[in-house]
Amino acid sequence: MADVKERPVVEGSTSAAARPRGKREQTKHNNREAILDAARIVFADLGYGATSVRDIIRKTGLASGTFYNYFKSKEEVFEALMDEGMRRIRPRLRAERIRSRTFEDFIRNAYRAYFEYLATDSDTFQVMRRNPNTMRVRMDSPEILAGFEEIREYLEEDIRNGTLPDVDSEYLMAALVGIAMEIGDRMLRRPEMDAEAAAAFGTQLVLSGFRALPAKKS
Question: Which residues of 59-90 are buried (b: 16+ CB within 10 A; e: fewer)?
């Protein structure tokens, strides 16, 4: 596996968030977190379609004007929640990339990390279980797109060093992500969630399938 380069700290990352905040900045942070916390509960209870901005505001205890200082709509709030989830999982995937020695290791470890995240993060679990179809159509926020691009870059590294054949990395990334999302959705519906079994199934599906892919057209 190719070495993974260190990536710069971006706003919203753990290191950036750890910097001391002034009083005004802390208030803004607290208000935004209060809105997101309330939205998680409301989206999980009512579902995306039935949720209104008023429902979220009522749950926060903040004034409606305060809400609109941070978000224009419930769509923006939902996308912010999805971005937050991606910010949590990306460091885990990066760590699995670094410690994996083969492509098979990386796929299995990455899937396991993702499925364990779904199974153990109760807030994410509730939102995803209640809104699976909404999540599928709201996957174009900046953080999510950056996460997908990072996965594609990993695949490109493996193609360059000969670990993978010269296949279409964009299609392969989409397939890997799609498999993870669909298996994760089904895992969340089961009374007993087995992240290890879900990862093993997804890994075997990928390994058995990608060898038959056609070479990328030049």
Answer: bbebeeebbeebbeebeebbbbbbbbbbbebb
What is the residue-wise DSSP string for 51-75?
--HHHHHHHHT--HHHHHTT-SSHH
Chain segment 7-59, per-residue pLDDT in tens: 444 444 444 455 677 888 888 999 999 999 999 899 888 888 889 999 999 99
pTM greater than 0.90: no
Distance CA 145, CA 111 (A): 18
Long-range CB contacts for residues 41-46, cutoff 8 Å, separation at least 24: 43/78, 43/81, 43/127, 43/130, 43/131, 44/123, 44/126, 44/127, 44/129, 44/130, 45/130
| C-alpha–C-alpha distance, residues 169 and 187, integer Å | 27
Burial state string for 24-47 with b = 16 or more CB within 10 A and e = fewer than 16: eeeeeeebbebbbebbbebbbeee
Phi-psi region of 20 (alpha: psi -120 to 50; beta: other; left: phi over 0): beta
What's the CA gap between 164 and 88, in Å, rounded? Answer: 28
Q: Annotate 99-115 with b (16+ C-beta within 10 A) or e (fewer).
A: ebeebeebbbbbbbbbb
**Is-contact 97 7, C-beta < 8 A?**
no
Q: Set out the domains of the chain in order of their start, with CATH numbers.
A: 20-72 (1.10.10.60), 79-212 (1.10.357.10)
